[in-house]
Structures are given as C-alpha cells and as structure tokens.
Amino acid sequence: MAKNSLVTAGTSEELPAIFVADEMFEGPTGFENVSAKDLLIPRITILQKMSPQIEKGRPEHINGAEYGDFCDTGTAEVFKELVVVPCFFAMVYLEWAPRNTGKGLVANHGTDASCLKNAAPDEKRRMTLPNGNYIAETATWYCLNLSAHGRKSFIPLTSTALKASRRWLTLLTSEKLKRPDGSEFTPPLWYRSWRVNTVDESNAEGSWKSWKFSPGDPILALDPTKGLLNEARDFNKQASEGLVRGDVSNAAEEHSTTEVPF
Known about the structure:
Helices cover 16% and strands 37% of the residues. The protein has five helices and 17 strands. The chain has helices at 17-20, 162-174, 219-222, 227-240, 251-257, and strands at 3-8, 11-16, 40-41, 44-46, 70-72, 77-79, 82-96, 105-108, 120-121, 127-128, 134-145, 151-158, 177-178, 184-185, 192-203, 206-218, 245-246. The longest helix is centred in the C-terminal third of the chain and has 14 residues, at 227-240. The termini are far apart. The model is unreliable at 1-13 and 253-262 (pLDDT under 50).
C-alpha cells in the first residue's frame, strides 16, 4: 500500500495514503480557537559541559546530544549548526529569583530598563535587587529556524552571549542596499538568512561555547515565491505586537548548571 510521511514536532510517522485522504481531514480541525498568543515559541540554546541533555540518566537526556550542539528545548532536537532568518529583536529585562528558592521567573519587565535603577552587581556580576532577585539583560531574537523547516523559534542571549548579540546586530545594521536612484538603505532584519555556529570562549572562571553568526543567502534567493518572506513579516508582526511568547522556562537554571560565567 502506498504511504505518505507525516512529520510532526521532530518525529516522522508513516500513515497509509488512504488515511491521509480520509474525510476526517475535511471541515473543522479542532484548532479553530488557537491563536499565536496561545503558543509558546520554543527556545534554542547551546548545550554546555553540564547541560542535562548530554548527561545520561537525566530525564532531559537526548540521545546523540553533545557539548556544543544547538538544542531546541521545546522539541528536544539537536543541531550541529543552524540556518535562521531573524524576524524581531528587542532587549528585555527578566527578573529571576535565586535558584535555591525554586521560584524561577518573577517578572518580565519588557524593554523597561528602569528596573535596574536599584540593582547592584553581586559576586557573579549579576544585577541584583535588594529583595535578592536579579535582573538579566536579555537580547531576544525571534527567528525562523530553517534547519527545522522554518519553525518559529526564540533565541535569548544574555550574560557573556550579549557580545555575540551585539556583533550580530552590528552586522545587520551595517548592511546597505542601493535603490535605483543610487541612494542606500538598510534592509529589513529578515532580508537574509544567517548561519549559526559555536565558538570557544573562556575566562578565569571557565570555558564554554558561544554563538557566531555569519551571513547566508538572501531570503528571496532561498524562496523566490515570497512565501518565506511573508512568514518572516508575519512573525515580526506577531512578536512586535506581543502576540507570541518565547519559552523562558528553566532558562535561568541553564546558566547555573552549564558553567557559563555571568
């Protein structure tokens, strides 16, 4: 019997073609009331030396995952390298409780940096409030992950990774295109794809893997039909209007268990 392959959330399930064409796929799907604001956008991180995904016996362990791999924490997929299209950027300020309290994220202050006015650096150079919570300056990138068929993804860069974010933003804002009249302009964030690799970094406190972003193909070279372009524009609109949320669950714990110095 002929078969079609259905791919969902990182898994592949083969179903008979007659099932795929069955009448149950006509009419309502059950997702009619689901909107962008109901979904969490999965986070992409780099697996460090003590990441639970590479430790056998841990519930988070992923077969084949290695130090320096990229990991989509929502689907538990790992990638050796990524190709992404950035769609939205913002510097946001997340307030975290100390890990030993088990409270996790206390507040998302958005782009309002005034939450830092009463904060002072602690021994780990985290901006700590009088109540013991700390504020993490977080460069948030909403991207289409072309390595996962254009999946909407969220890359939060904080601590030492802020340097990589600044370099990426500098490259993006430095690119110029010419209009027919010869004048120059900066193209939109999603003008081209970007290759993402890891690089080694270290200081007196340890070593870790960090981010490196290199320019890839323009988006219209990848998809002349403009389908990918329209997806990027739509994702930018959803993110800028606050209709999507990046999944920051356990993000603070990652920093405390992966030997990445603050």
